[in-house]
UniProtKB/TrEMBL annotation:
<keyword id="KW-0921">Nickel transport</keyword>
<protein>
    <submittedName>
        <fullName>Nickel import ATP-binding protein NikE</fullName>
    </submittedName>
</protein>
<keyword id="KW-0547">Nucleotide-binding</keyword>
<feature type="domain" description="ABC transporter">
    <location>
        <begin position="4"/>
        <end position="253"/>
    </location>
</feature>
<dbReference type="InterPro" id="IPR050319">
    <property type="entry name" value="ABC_transp_ATP-bind"/>
</dbReference>
<keyword id="KW-0406">Ion transport</keyword>
<dbReference type="GO" id="GO:0005524">
    <property type="term" value="F:ATP binding"/>
</dbReference>
<keyword id="KW-0533">Nickel</keyword>
<dbReference type="InterPro" id="IPR014137">
    <property type="entry name" value="Nickel_NikE"/>
</dbReference>
<dbReference type="InterPro" id="IPR003593">
    <property type="entry name" value="AAA+_ATPase"/>
</dbReference>
<keyword id="KW-0813">Transport</keyword>
<keyword id="KW-0067">ATP-binding</keyword>
<dbReference type="InterPro" id="IPR027417">
    <property type="entry name" value="P-loop_NTPase"/>
</dbReference>
<dbReference type="InterPro" id="IPR003439">
    <property type="entry name" value="ABC_transporter-like_ATP-bd"/>
</dbReference>
<dbReference type="InterPro" id="IPR017871">
    <property type="entry name" value="ABC_transporter-like_CS"/>
</dbReference>
<dbReference type="Pfam" id="PF00005">
    <property type="entry name" value="ABC_tran"/>
</dbReference>
Length: 266
């Protein structure tokens, strides 16, 4: 059974004209379908406005679609009771692009990472501190960092804290919404290596939402491309992706810059 199944999802945001005289709905997602298998990473590519982040919110249970189904571990996210949704939510976590707005600036690293543990586990203070310390070390930081506040970390370090929070409950699926886009190239490579290591260690599945084809190709098992709210290409084997004749894929491939400026074409 697939870990995640998105079936014919359609979603639109309500909008209105001046003085609320009339309302209309701008379509964002149109009949989107995709699957993610256990232990696999699906890279979701597309330009700005393609609907990638909206689809991520629908999968996370944050935006109820007008039509379609989201089945996670065989259960419909939008057709279950509160108790079942809470159990599913434990196995479904997220890391957003902006690492600073994703945390409370007044909380310490220990409090940030420990928040999901407090919500779902019954740990003593000593056990939780030990667990947080282990999670910090697992993402390449030090246990002593748990007393620090967000402003005392670099962007890359803070994103590691967000990742530590996301894996604290050992979830089945993590939605990574442009999780490395705001980082410099060196930090990006380190975070991608960390994500790959965590994936193999814990058997995690990822939905890796990005516009960066290089980042997606480096970490993903399968790749999908969105355009104007639709999935226009889906390759279960990423090796097939670069040979896809679809214009949307060709545009993404042609946008890749050479590592050396001398070999970049205008």
């Amino acid at each position: 059974m697939s870990l995640l199944q998105v079936k014919d999802v359609t979603h639109a945001y309500a909008s209105s004209t001046l003085f609320w005289q009339s309302k209309r709905h701008a379509p964002v997602l149109s009949g989107v379908s995709l699957t993610i298998e256990p232990g696999k990473c699906l890279g979701l590519l597309g330009t700005s406005g393609a609907g990638k982040s909206t689809l991520g919110k629908v999968i996370l249970g944050l935006e109820k679609p007008q039509k379609g189904q989201v089945l996670f571990q065989g259960m419909n996210l939008y057709d279950t009771d509160a108790s079942a949704r809470r159990r599913l939510r434990r196995d479904l976590q997220v890391v957003f692009q902006d690492c600073y707005s994703s945390v409370n600036p007044r909380m310490t690293a220990e409090q940030i990472i420990g928040e999901p543990l407090q919500n779902y586990e019954s740990l003593s203070s000593k056990e939780q501190k030990r667990t947080v310390g282990e999670l910090l070390e697992r993402v390449g930081l030090n246990a002593d960092d748990m007393t620090k506040h967000p402003h005392q970390f670099s962007g890359g370090q803070l994103q590691r804290i967000n990742i530590a929070r996301a894996i604290a409950l050992k979830p089945k699926l993590i939605v990574l919404d442009e999780a490395v886009s705001s980082l410099d190239m060196v930090t990006q490579s380190h975070i991608l290596a960390l994500l790959s290591d965590l994936k193999s260690t814990y058997g995690l599945s990822y939905l890796f939402i990005t516009h960066d084809i290089k980042a997606a190709y480096s970490i993903s098992d399968a790749l999908a491309v969105m355009e104007k709210g639709e999935v226009v290409e889906f390759c279960e084997d990423k090796a097939q992706f670069l040979q896809s004749p679809h214009p949307g894929v060709r545009n993404l491939v042609q946008s890749i810059l050479s590592e050396h400026p001398r070999y970049r074409s205008l």
